[in-house]
Amino acid sequence: MSYSVLIKGGNVLRGRKFERLDIGIKKDKIENLGDFSKENADLVVDATGKYISPGFIDLTNHSDTHWTLFSQPKQESLLAQGITTILGGNCGASLAPLVKASDIEGIHKWADSTQINTNWKSVGEFFEELSRHPIGVNFAMLVGHGTLRRGVLGDEARNVTSKEIEELKFILKNSLDEGAFGLSTSLAAAHAKFATNSELKELFKLVGKYDGITKHHLKDEGRNILPAIAEIVGLGRDTGASIQISHFKILGKSSWGFLSEAINLIESARQEGTKITLDFFPYTKTGSLLYMLLPSWIIEGGRARILGALKDPKMRREALDYLKSLTLHYDKIVVASTFKDATSVGKTIKELASSSGLDPEEIIAELLEINELQVSIFNEVVSENHLHNLIAKEYALISSDGVGYDLKAKMPFDLPHPRSFGAFPRALQIFAKESDDTTFEEILHKFTEVPATLLGLRDRGKIEKGFFADLAVLDLDKIKNIPNYTALNKEVEGVEWVFVNGKAAVKNGVMSGELCGRIIKRV
Question: Which residue has the higher pLDDT, 333 or 109?
Answer without folding.
Answer: 333
